[in-house]
Design a protein that fits this description.
Length: about 140
């Protein structure tokens, strides 16, 4: 039987501040590993988020998922939570978790996964800069 799955994507963006630091390490090691992202007074990134949802189009609507519903979900679960926030200081999700693009993508995935029909597969792509981006899960 032919695979009739389709991937749909919704793009949103938010900006947030962070600082990468491992409190188990000394200052020199933190600076060496995290570079500018270790600067003590935090700095911002303009994050672009792409949420991919994969499934069979519903025979009645022709939609894999209503994009308005997906957009509202991302806004309510992710944008309102993180936009214009200091991820280290203002969010409970990153109190004890280094806010790398990898960890942010994993947190976002978990926030959305439970709200999207389990029959649909999902993947999150997060751009920290136009050239640096991550995907979670790595393989759908
Ligand atoms: Ni940074």
């Amino acid at each position: 039987m032919t695979d009739k799955k389709v991937a749909v994507f919704r793009k949103e963006s938010f900006n947030a501040a962070h600082r990468l630091n491992n409190s188990m390490w000394d200052t020199a090691t933190n600076q060496k590993v995290f570079g500018k992202c270790n600067l003590p007074n935090y700095h911002g990134h303009n994050y672009d988020l792409i949420v991919k949802v994969i499934g069979m189009p519903d025979p009645k609507t022709g939609f894999v998922m209503d994009m308005k519903v997906l957009s509202d979900l991302i806004k309510e679960q992710v944008i309102e939570r993180f936009d214009h926030k200091n991820l280290n200081l203002d969010t409970k999700e990153f109190k004890g978790l280094n806010p790398t693009a990898e960890n942010i993508a994993m947190v976002i995935y978990d926030l959305l996964r439970s709200k999207i029909d389990e029959k649909l597969q999902m993947q999150v792509r997060l751009y920290e800069t136009p050239r640096n981006f991550v995907e979670y899960p790595a393989v759908v």
